[in-house]
Structures are given as C-alpha cells and as structure tokens.
Amino acid sequence: MGAGMKHMANGHFIRLMVIALAAGGLAACSSMPTPDTVVPEVSAFHAPLQSHVLKAGERVTLVAFNADGVSGDYVIGKDGTLDLGRYGKVAADGLTAPQLEEVITAALAGRGLTEARVSVMPEAG
Fold first, then answer.
1. Domain ranges for the chain
2. CB of 87 closer than 8 Å to CB of 107
3. Fewer beta carbons within 10 angstroms: which end of the chain, N or C?
C-alpha cells in the first residue's frame, strides 16, 4: 500500500471512530434519567411520610426539575406559607408532602413553568 493510500485509510478509520464515538455518546444520553423517571423514585423515597401533615416552622427540601431556583431547603413560615422567592408564596400548613407537591407544581404552572416537576421531602426528625 502506497503512502497516499495509507493516509486515506487512516483518515477513513479516524472518521469512522469519530462517528462511532458520537453515536455511543448519543446512546448514553438517551439512557439518562428524566424527570418522569426520577420523580416517581423520589416520591417512593418519602412514601412513609406521605401521611405526615406539614406545619408552620417545619423544614422541607424541594427537588425541582424544569424550574430554576426552586430546589433547596425551606422553612414553612409562621403564616403557614412556603416562600418560593420570585415564584411567590404557597400555602403549606396542614398539607402532606404529596399535596404540597401538587400545590407548588400548580403555582409554577401559573407562572408559565408548565413542565416543572417538584418533590417535597419533609425533614426527618
């Protein structure tokens, strides 16, 4: 094989390797978790707390998908609300974690975040 043919063969081999690596990377992305696959697992994590009624002064952790700036630790205020900053306040006192998830999701949807998914985890204590 001449020098020119070796160069062409090497170039063809390199292009094939790049394509194979790119395809492998895309396949890996397709198996990444999505909010629809993660949220049920997170919900199952706090299943024992589903009947726990939240009250003022209690700490909760929010895990939010498709809602920048919502995930974090919060304290239910003395007035019974959870202050979500730029997204406003939502009533939390007297709700269970799953009920609060629905309230927060609805509040975010009302602010245009229709794809938001939220999980609420009360502080164990």
1. 1-32, 35-122
2. yes
3. C
Domain 35-122 falls under CATH 3.30.1950.10: yes
3-state helix, strand, coil in the chain (%, to 5): 45, 20, 35
Q: For 108, list phi and psi in degrees, rounded to 5.
A: -65, -40
pLDDT digits (tens, 9 = 90+) for 22-43: 555 555 555 556 656 666 665 6
Q: What is the pLDDT of residue 94?
A: 97
Enter the tokens of residue 122: 């009360």
Tokens standing for residue 53: 């009624």
Pairing type for strands 59-65 and 117-122 reads: antiparallel
pLDDT in tens, 51-98: 889 999 999 999 999 999 999 999 999 999 999 999 999 999 999 999
Which helix (DSSP H) or strand (DSSP E) does residue 105 occupy? helix 97-110
Q: Coil, strand or helix: which one is 112?
A: coil
Dump strand ranges (E) for the chain.
59-65, 72-75, 81-83, 89-91, 117-122
- Locus of tokens 């929010």: 62
